[in-house]
C-alpha cells in the first residue's frame, strides 16, 4: 500500500500509484503506508529526509488524501477494481471478515435506495465537492461572460463548461465544439473533470481556479 508525503519547498514531480493515501503535511515522498506507520511508532522524523515531523505525536500528522487517490484511479484503468480484489483476498486468506461487506441477512430497502438515488440526481450535484472557478475570455472578438466566477461540482467536465460558455456567448450549446478552454496557457481535454484540472494544474495555488476560453483553433 503506497502513500505519499509532500514538501512545498522540495517539489518532486513523479507519478505515483496510491492506495488509501496518507499525507504528512509539508513532505512529498513516495512511501509505504504500513512501513510509515511502523517507522513513526519508534521515530518522530521523516524516513526519507530525517526532518522531524513532530516531537511527540508524528502519527497525528497523517491524513487521507482521497483526491489524489481518485485521480490515480481515473488515470490507471482497472486499478481500483484490482485493489478491491487484493483487499478482499487479504482478509480471506487470514480468515477475517471483510469490513466493507454488507452483513449476511441484512435487508436492503430497494425502494429507499431508489428514492435516495433520485434525490441525489435531482439536487443538481449541490452535495458534490465544489470548485470555485474564474472564466476569462482571451479573444477580443468573442464576448466576455457577464458573470466570470462560478461555483460548480468538481465532477463537471471541460465539455460542460464549453456548453455553458457556448450558450452565453454563441447563443447555443450545440456550438460548444467551437470553444477551447485553457489553464496556464495549456489546452484542456474535453473529458477532464474540474477536480482533475485543479489537482494537476492548480494544486498549490490560491482559489479560484482560473481558466481561459477562446474560439477553437484549427491546427
From TrEMBL:
Species of origin: Aphis gossypii
Residue stretches spanning the membrane: 12-32
Entry keyword Ribosomal protein: no
Chief place of localization: nucleus
Positions in coiled-coil regions: none
Matching Pfam families: RAWUL (PF16207)
A GO-annotated cellular component: nucleus
The protein's name in its UniProt record: RAWUL domain-containing protein
Keyword Translocase part of the UniProt annotation: no
Keywords: Membrane, Nucleus, Transmembrane, Transmembrane helix
RAWUL domain span: 148-214
Source organism, top-level taxon: Eukaryota
Localization annotation: Nucleus
